[in-house]
Amino acid sequence: MPQDPTPIVLTFKDSSYTIYSLEEYDLLPDSVKGGPEERRLIESSFKSSTETGENGFSFAFFWFIGVMILIIYRVVKDLKKEQYRDSTPLAYDADYTDNSSSTSCYVYKGKELHFSTDELHKVCDKYNPYYNKLSANNQQLFIERLKKFIRSKDFYIYAPVAYKEMPILISASAVQITFGLDDYLLPHFSTVVIHPEEYFAYEPLRVLVGNVQDNIITLSWKHFLQDYQNPSDGKNVGLHEMAHALQVQYLFRKPNRMNDFKEDYEHYDRLDDEVQQSERLKSNRLFDDNALKNKNEFWATSVELFFERPVLLKLQYPKLYDAICVVLNQDPLAA
């Protein structure tokens, strides 16, 4: 038998709001409600509540977990808001596709983003340390590749304001990791989704700062920019997700078809098990816990360290470092 829904308490700054239905949630101020992800979570909670009969304990447990995730997400979101005052809004008319929430979705066709060479150079020169170290000729090649990469993608920006740095710098991270490769456009991925900060993903429900799924690369702009502003801590969500995109493009899509990337990757793959085992035995690790979850995460983290802490990676695991040099056909220490 259906039962009355369990009330949900939302905390916003110094105030608390108790709601008993989705209709009451919709009447709350926009600043309290948040975005569409939070509404879907609330709707799911009420739906589960009214449909739950004998499994009350099971629902109560999962409802509590869901609400705690929501509260933590809102607190983190409120504490970590940042203004990107140095960024310039895109000087183009964007399609406003989400009228149901306070968060806009700007859609830009890459082939319609006609950034000049000077614009691209200024943005990369300011924010991308890898670009700064390139010779003048290689910077010119980097910009040429960057233009082609941008033209090959569609950009969905879920934010109150869309900045030109968003498509430029995220595309530049892909150009960076593929700069030594002949095939660098990652054609399987037609779409880049950009959130202003961490975001909800579903099935399973979790909060992410970046992921690769289907033909979409998704990133948190806040974490992406912070990682490039701290280029030596070994953390870079942009490079991390582009490393996964490389795996999908050249390893997973056609597993039985051999290519140059796959041949070189197989040599790397023969080394990573030994390194993972060594890291698990250390108290002072170079790789974090997430890297040791599986081989895919280890690869993505290896790429982060390869670009951000190359000296330390080569010192501790010289064979692994050399193998990545071969896979990506570049050496940060030789730049």
Automatic annotation (TrEMBL):
Keyword terms: Membrane, Transmembrane, Transmembrane helix
GO cellular component terms listed in the entry, alphabetical order: cytosol
SUPFAM superfamilies listed in its UniProt record: Metalloproteases ('zincins'), catalytic domain
Superkingdom classification of source: Bacteria
Membrane-crossing residue ranges in chain numbering: 56-76
InterPro entries tied to this protein: MetalloPept_cat_dom_sf (IPR024079), MtfA_fam (IPR010384), MtfA_N (IPR042252)
Pfam families: Peptidase_M90
UniProt xrefs under CDD domains: Peptidase_M90-like
Molecular function per GO: aminopeptidase activity; metallopeptidase activity
PANTHER family the record matches: MTFA PEPTIDASE, PROTEIN MTFA
Annotated protein name in UniProt: Zinc-dependent peptidase
